[in-house]
Amino acid sequence: MKTPLIEVKDLRKRYPIYGPLGKLFPPKTHMNAVSGLSLQIYEGETYGLVGESGCGKTTTGRSILGLTKPEEGEIWYRGKNLVQLSDREFRPLRRDIQMVFQDPLSSLSPWQRIGALLEEPLRIQGEKDGEKRRDKVLSILEKVGLSQEHYFRYPHELSGGQVQRMGIARALIIEPKLIVCDEPVSALDVSIQAQILNMLTALQREMGLTLLFISHDMGVVRYLSDRIGVMYLGALVEESTTDELFAGPLHPYTKALFASIPDLSKRGKEREMLGGELPVRTDEFKGCVFHTRCPYAEERCSQEEPVLQEVSPGHKVACHKV
């Protein structure tokens, strides 16, 4: 039996919702951004986490990196529960767990050159030899498709695709084991997206990386992922291998996501679209997370939350009707 590199157990994160006067008074209620999420990511695989905006994908990724502190739950990495670690205890593990942000330009200092920005993580991790740092930066720039001249440029002098390559280079510079990719290609042209995805695949094979790939684009997730977890309103509603999920999605929300994928062969035909708006999951919310928009919902769905259970080897679904 394989041992997961990362194991998330019953993760929960809430954010306060204040009234018209803001933080002058206690919060009226809380929004459950992530509620009871459990998943496993195995070494060397790409796990795709997919769902519409606001479903809790980024909060999950930030919790794994220690950038967001969950109220409850466990995140196990090589025998250590990351949730219980202090910032000082977590620091050595940051060499192993890195993140590629959706907008890496906002996380880069505009006053530093690319070379200095890439050398900074090495300096923080204790590499004092300036020549070794420079050689490593030049090597990683080449791996991500940038030239040596980019070492002397500023972030604002790069194109969108080059900035994203820079963000990937910064995550790879200290040779991590796990990289959380938070929608790294959503703001790029389709042709540039393909280049970045192909580069990630090649780097994963070369460096033995494990990827948690967060996206709302089913086509991108299908291309890159070995397994896929579908999130809705802070909960995992379906999980399976990529091939099996695309061959036969079982949860109504997963089917709705698939129906939203552009298909030229169905041009001019009426498509079944998901109605309603994404609700806010407060403490008062009951039942299945999808019951307010599900066309198959019954009374039980509005009262009892279904458990994510295995319906076939490796295929899990949280639905009373499956």
Description:
Helix 3 (114-124) packs across helix 4 and helix 4 (130-143) packs across helix 5. The chain has 9 helices and 12 strands. Helices cover 28% and strands 24% of the residues. The two termini are 27 Å apart. It is of the alpha/beta class. The protein has an 8-stranded mixed sheet, with helices on both faces. A 4-stranded antiparallel sheet has the order 2-1-4-5.
In short:
This protein has 322 residues and is an alpha/beta fold.
Order of strands in the sheet with most strands: 6-7-8-3-9-10-12-11
Task: Report the average pLDDT across residues.
Answer: 88
Content of β-strand: 15-25%
Q: Which regions have little confidence, pLDDT < 50, spanning 5+ residues?
A: none
Share of helical residues:
25-40%
Q: SSE layout and pairings?
A:
Layout: E1 4-17, E2 29-42, E3 46-50, H1 57-64, E4 72-77, E5 80-81, H2 87-90, E6 97-100, H3 114-124, H4 130-143, H5 160-172, E7 178-182, H6 190-207, E8 210-215, H7 218-224, E9 227-232, E10 235-241, H8 242-247, H9 252-259, E11 309-312, E12 315-317
Parallel strand pairs: 3-8, 3-9, 6-7, 7-8
Antiparallel strand pairs: 1-2, 1-4, 4-5, 9-10, 10-12, 11-12
State the main characteristics:
322 residues, alpha/beta, eight-stranded mixed β-sheet, four-stranded antiparallel β-sheet, 28% helix
